[in-house]
């Protein structure tokens, strides 16, 4: 009996050590599995200010909005940059005139927006061309899924308002909510902030 007890005790210790080692291995590997989905998941409540600007006026206004909203920014750039002649409205067949007269025109983008799914709200800033948004804005909004997002149109203009652009974007932004727009550059920063606050973004 005295010889059997030490042997049983030794066997029991071996079993306990094996179980502990297995448990430790499981605990060590567990965080790697749980961290993987977290690393892939992207927040879906961020705000983006995407802007198209040829002369710099719209860029200035857009960056002010981005600062007020603490938002990310993205510049909408054409694959083929616009030259001064392209924007000369006194020339009947200048590029801007030709594009604006063709509702199906979709100028190509130089780059796509990375990971648009992370943005819940997208402010889109643009100059007014012939009473509406430039066609490259149409290209941008049709380049990814806008379902469930809030789109906020803002424009810069010497005289035209944003109303036509809002109506156009409501047709183009399938599945998104397009808010009332705002013409920038004629109001103070405080007024812009008050308007943005009223949207509850």
Largest sheet: 6 strands, parallel
Report the mean per-residue pLDDT as an integer. Answer: 83
The third-level CATH topology is: Rossmann fold
Low-confidence runs: 1-41
Structural class by helix and strand composition: alpha/beta
Shape: globular
Which range best describes the helical content: under 10%, 10-25%, 25-40%, 40-55%, 55-70% or over 70%?
40-55%
Distance between the termini: 79 Å
Provide the β-strand percentage band.
15-25%
Radius of gyration: 28 Å
| Number of helical regions | 6
CATH architecture type = 3-Layer(aba) Sandwich
Q: Order of helices and strands, N to C?
A: HEHEHEHEHEEH
Index terms:
six-stranded parallel β-sheet, single chain, 6 helices, 42% helix, Rossmann fold, alpha/beta, 15% strand, 201 residues, disordered N terminus, globular
How is the secondary structure organized here?
Elements: H1 4-40, E1 46-51, H2 57-69, E2 72-75, H3 95-101, E3 119-127, H4 135-141, E4 150-156, H5 163-172, E5 177-178, E6 182-184, H6 189-199
Parallel strand pairs: 1-2, 1-3, 3-4, 4-5, 4-6
Written account of the structure:
This protein has helices spanning 4-40, 57-69, 95-101, 135-141, 163-172, 189-199; strands at 46-51, 72-75, 119-127, 150-156, 177-178, 182-184. The protein is an alpha/beta fold and 201 residues long. It has a single domain (53-199), classed as Rossmann fold (3-Layer(aba) Sandwich), CATH 3.40.50.360. Strands 1, 2, 3, 4, 5 and 6 form a six-stranded parallel beta sheet that branches. α5 (163-172) links the parallel β4 (150-156) and β5. α2 packs across α6 (189-199). The termini are far apart. Residues 1-41 have low confidence and may be disordered.
